[in-house]
Amino acid sequence: MAASGASTGSAQSSGAASSGTTGSGGGPGPFTCNLVLGLFTTSQWFNGTNPGGASKDFLMDGVDATKWESKTLKYAYIEKWIPANGTNWTLPINNPCAVNSMTPDRVVFVAFSPGTTSSDQTETGWETLLNGIIATIRMKYPSVKEIDLLTMGRAPNNMLCANNNDVWTVVPPYEDAAFAAVAAASTSFPIVVGPKYYVPDCNSYEFANDTDYTVAGSNAIAQQLATYYIAHP
Fold first, then answer.
1. Across the chain, what does the average pLDDT equal?
2. Would 26 be classed as within a structural domain?
3. Alpha-carbon gap, residue 64 to 72, rounded angstroms
4. Short-list 150, 149, 148, 154, CA closest to 213
5. What is the dihedral of CA 83, 198, 147, 129, to 10 degrees?
6. Are 65 and 108 in contact (CB under 8 A)?
7. For residue range 103-115, what is the model confidence (pLDDT) as tens digits?
8. Quick one: which of 110, 65, 119 has its CA closest to 88?
9. 3-state class of 72 per DSSP?
10. Domain range holding 174?
């Protein structure tokens, strides 16, 4: 399946993260403990997991590292997080928060689906997936006051690179639309669509035709996301 690119703009062209959006005015930050849930590429920028991990990762880029922790695993697709009894939830915590590590008040979820069914690759299908993980997060962590939803990182301008045929380096429009719709529909609980973030160039992928980042790519993404979350503590 070919993924189409989104329109370009200053954020996409420069490799800077774009600002996030919220469905209910934002949560009651600053937060005492932020839990990031994601995949291997998440760990590359969050805490420098190799190969290709950031040499100056998210935790080194100016955020309060005592308030950020993560659970990440390769192939940790959204479908594997939705079941409350799934093994992903038993993953060890990386860099536990100094306070409230087991009861985070913000969860940042990096969502990816390889499309196990054809409906997963539609706006409606993605809304179902996102609502499923939101419900599970709120059940697992009643302490949570805000959930931020992030997509995967994007190729420059969110367009396929000539040297990389992996369609998942591009976030399709129906996925962005689903994120926006789910956040907009959440009027009683803060669901925030986090910033769009980009690798700086088409040489930022560790392997041919793959989504894993190089050190330079991970460093750039770590800085983009840290800049956003320093402004949204």
1. 91
2. no
3. 19
4. 154
5. -30
6. no
7. 999 999 999 998 8
8. 110
9. strand
10. 14-19+41-106+126-187+197-231
